[in-house]
Design brief:
60% of the residues lie in helices and 2% in strands. It is an all-alpha fold. The radius of gyration is 48 Å and the shape is rod-shaped. It has helices at 2-38, 43-56, 58-91, 118-125, 136-142, 144-148, 178-183, and strands spanning 108-109, 115-116. The protein has a two-stranded antiparallel sheet with strand order 1-2. Strand 1 and strand 2 form a beta hairpin.
């Protein structure tokens, strides 16, 4: 309730209001004390009870209320950040514990005992999106021609690749020279 009033009117106006209340209470208490103990009201006593709160109270009151407003704003900001973090934490799904996986085919056994592919299991139980590629060892093993730019031994050459042409020699010529074959 008080924080709402403080936000509505600001620390300056609230400081003036509190100072007025303190001055009024100070005058009442001082007047009653003077009447009870001295039997009359002293003018100097009344002036002191008005001047003292006017000089002392406004600055600390303004500082206090400004800090109170800042604390209130910071608390509200912290509350909003906590709500944001709680919403984000609800979205996080974490795999933890022991996960049975086949040593050979890498299938994963779920809680029902069914064996699933690694990709489908991760897709169901996490928000991971897998991308596919090859590690360097698998590229060397599966696609050696890709690395060396030469065909694999068991793969035929494609028509676009440079082929060495073998030209058979004429069997009638013994040395294979063109000049010898013309003389005949």
């Amino acid at each position: 309730m008080f924080t709402g009033i403080l936000i509505k009117y600001g620390p300056g106006k609230i400081s003036v209001l509190i100072t007025a209340i303190v001055i009024t209470l100070s005058v009442i208490i001082t007047s009653l004390s003077l009447v009870v103990f001295q039997g009359y009201i002293d003018t100097l006593g009344i002036i002191i009870c008005i001047a003292a709160p006017l000089l002392i109270l406004p600055v600390p009151a303004k500082i206090f209320f400004s800090m109170l407003l800042k604390l209130n704003r910071t608390e509200e900001l912290l509350r909003k950040k906590n709500q944001d973090l709680e919403r984000e934490a609800e979205k996080v799904r974490t795999l933890s514990g022991l996960l049975p996986i086949c040593s050979s085919c890498k299938k994963i056994r779920d809680t029902g005992g069914k064996w699933n592919d690694l990709e489908s299991y991760l897709d169901k139980h996490s928000e991971i999106q897998l991308t596919h590629g090859f590690c360097p060892e698998c590229v060397d093993r599966l696609y050696p021609s890709f690395i060396n730019n030469t065909p694999a031994p068991d793969q035929p050459q494609s028509p676009g690749q440079d082929q060495q042409t073998h030209v058979p020699q004429d069997p009638s010529s013994s040395s294979g020279n063109v000049e010898d074959s013309r003389e005949n």
